[in-house]
Specification:
Two copies of one chain form a homodimer. By secondary structure, the first copy, chain A, is α+β, with helices and mostly antiparallel strands. Chain A contains six helices and five strands, in the order H-H-H-H-E-E-E-E-H-E-H. Strand 5 of chain A pairs antiparallel with strand 5 of chain B, so a sheet runs across the interface. The complex binds manganese (II) ion (2 copies) and zinc ion (2 copies). The structure holds a DNA duplex.
DNA sequence: TTTCATATTGATAATGATTTTCATTATCAA
DNA sequence: TTGATAATGAAAATCATTATCAATATGAAA
């Protein structure tokens, strides 16, 4: 029983609909956070205690390849992941990262101007440096409200 | 004998002027590249074969803390470093990264508009999310000329 | 349904970058 | 020149992520 868009998508691409894959999708579907592999693993264990951390990594690798999740590198030594097309989120967004508690805030408010400038810059850069630009990242690092008080 | 601005700076802050520290400064001073700890270690060995990789890491950590070098995370599993205030470079610049050969290009050409927008966005974001923004990163990922042909 | 080829799994070991530990050494103020 | 101690280098420890490999679950075909 495929009960989500993403499960449909997996099948369509010829991948098997396995327990770990369903679990990972469900976990990511229900959060606005940017979870690490370990975070996901801990949540997954509560649903099915026989799941292996290795499978979480493999699943995340697969999902990243087929553009179902986005892998982020926010300057920690571990990666974080979020579902692409999560109905809880705006499609295209940039990030605000607290360097103390590692909280990540998505923002899409001021994206119009940003994206315009990004596109313009991309064009100029690719011309000048003969670079084929695939994607870009914009990260604002700082302290969230809570951490400002604590720090 | 302190023969550079950076050596002066180290002394000023009360740190000892040691062999590994001088070597790391000299290596970084003379390159436009973004070197990994290992890269620096290999170069350092040619200057003084008794230097340890551990000291390279320790030195880079110290330099990062006192704002002498900038540590970068370009999505590889290892970090890369560049000297702040390197006379070979424009002070403030953003980055263009080849995902295939890992080459990094500094660009400062179109920074005026970018920085303007960044500042504006920063203000709006810090108000809306009560976030204290310390710094930001803008990375364009893609393929350099060479890698476009090879890929 | 049952069967079956094989895609996928989970336990374990391996990796690779970075850190920690700790005994030894080098720096620099007195 | 001396001495307190900051800093070093070798080796072991960490920690996230990958590779291995025998066992298992999936889903198309019978
Ligand atoms: Mn996000
Ligand atoms: Mn740079
Ligand atoms: Zn915080
Ligand atoms: Zn390249």
């Amino acid at each position: 029983m495929k009960d989500s868009f993403w499960q449909e998508h997996l099948c369509y691409l010829g991948f098997r609909l396995t327990v770990p894959r369903k679990i990972v999708i469900n976990i990511l579907k229900e959060t606005e956070k940017h979870l690490s592999a370990e975070d996901i693993y801990v949540k997954a264990l509560k649903i099915n205690p026989s799941i292996g951390l290795t499978s979480i990594y493999r699943t995340l690798l697969l999902f990243t390849k087929i553009n179902v999740v986005q892998k982020h590198d926010f300057g920690e030594k571990k990666a974080r992941y979020e579902l692409i097309n999560n109905p809880l989120k705006k499609e295209h967004h940039h990030h605000l990262i607290c360097t103390r508690c590692k909280t990540v805030i998505d923002y899409a408010d001021f994206m119009k101007e940003e994206v315009e400038l990004m596109t313009k810059t991309e064009n100029k850069l690719s011309k000048k440096y003969h670079f084929k630009i695939i994607y870009h990242t914009v990260h604002f690092y700082g302290l969230c409200v809570k951490c400002q008080k604590l720090a």
